[in-house]
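pasting for the record
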Amino acid sequence: MAETWVNSADSGAGHGDSGSAGDGDGDREADPASGVGTDLHLELSGRGSLRSQLTHALRNAVRSGRLAPGTRLPPYRGLARDLGMSRNTVADAYAELVEEGWLSARQGSGTRVAPRAVPHPDQERGPQRRTRQQVPHDLMPSSPDAAAFPRTAWLTSARRAMTAAPHSAFGVADPRGRPELRAALAEYLARARGVRAEPERILICAGFAHGLRLLAAVRGGTLAVESYGLDFHRAAAEQSGMRTVPLTVDAYGARVGELPDTGAHTVLLTPAHQFPTGGPLHAERRAAVVDWARAGGGLIVEDDYDGEFRYDRRAVGAVQGVAPDRVVYIGSASKSLSPALRLGWMVLPGWLVDDVVAAKGVREMWSGVVDQLTLADFIACGAYDRHLRRMRRHYRHRRDLLVRTLAERAPHIRVSGIAAGLHAVLELPEGTEEAALRAARRQGLAMDGLRPYLHPDSAMTPRDGLVIGYGTPMDHAFGAALDTLCLSLPDPEPASDQDPDPASDPASDAASDPDTSPGPGLEEAGPVPTG
């Protein structure tokens, strides 16, 4: 099959063409907006006459939708010259397609794809999964408020970074990442998250999942994960050759005392704010998992996905600060700025750096240099800190409004995991999760159920709940999203003779100790926090 790119920028040479398919208009000037000067990609089959090959290629381009209705085709003299055909061959092909209704020709307008030449049913795309932008009300977790992206400050940093960047920055990129960004991150992470890192041990990646794939390629074997967690993180590890085994999660975080029985040499944890159930990993369990790693050569992968957003207490420092030789710390700009940036960072033990860099490859193919330079300046000039302080106030207000709304309109629904982050967990009566999700879908509300986050091999009893992202909607849409949420929730269970449990009040949950009370699907911690 011959593939031909046709550049018709000079195809205005077709002056005086006449007698076929409407090119008799002369095409006196190649109007840039008309499509005459654009490239046209045609696939010639190599079978039959040149005319049949051309008609077949054009017909397929229209049928598939690649040439949209109204698209203007090149004059036939220019197309004939580019394809190495005679003018009459192209003119006859155009005329045949006009007669069949694929093309239309009119004096003064040239030859265009006919308005009704829609893609053939066999070529049409099937039903597509509804995207976030098509949902009227969006309470999906794990996304920030896109309208709050600091465009002006980011543009200022971009201009400054471009002015200061050396010429070498625009050559072949270093897979470790730009030194300006690694230096800025080393200072910021030490100051804000208690991470111990030198720029030489920081590797820039495209986000947490990318970093996890790199580690999986290096480590292999078995990966212990929290029973509740993101399924696509488990899938990323498994697709890279690792086997995942679940650890029970309770009010104190993952039961790391189960690690010796798993046979794993690597464990993935969310110590600052367990995802999605909420709450930090208990101090004794932090110490216990570090002891486990040091005693047996294990590795802790620390997912610090929203460590900057803590509302009711001081921020929980990174486990990496205690054991930088045994912890891979991974963070990203996905929650703090935008997932569209595709910027993440790995702080690696020194003994692991070369292997992970080798797994990434000899060139940077994931994160753009311009965004790296911009983020480096954004951090160094203090704009990142100012943005985070503003967003903490913004998201805390959102969280408080969610809690108050539920306390007023659905007091039977318990809320947990709200001391930090961008989401909350709503505990539902047994057997009502799917009905609530169906009710939400009918009203155009996107939200997640709790059950899909449970590892399929976990021995924990599944519980019904909803994972509500209060960071996602824009301000003007947040109130309507909460109204729709309340309409989707199940009704209260029949009243019993017992007094109501005050701990079930969402307002008291937020005001007292939202981190330490067990959330949906969590086992009671028991008397031994480490096990």
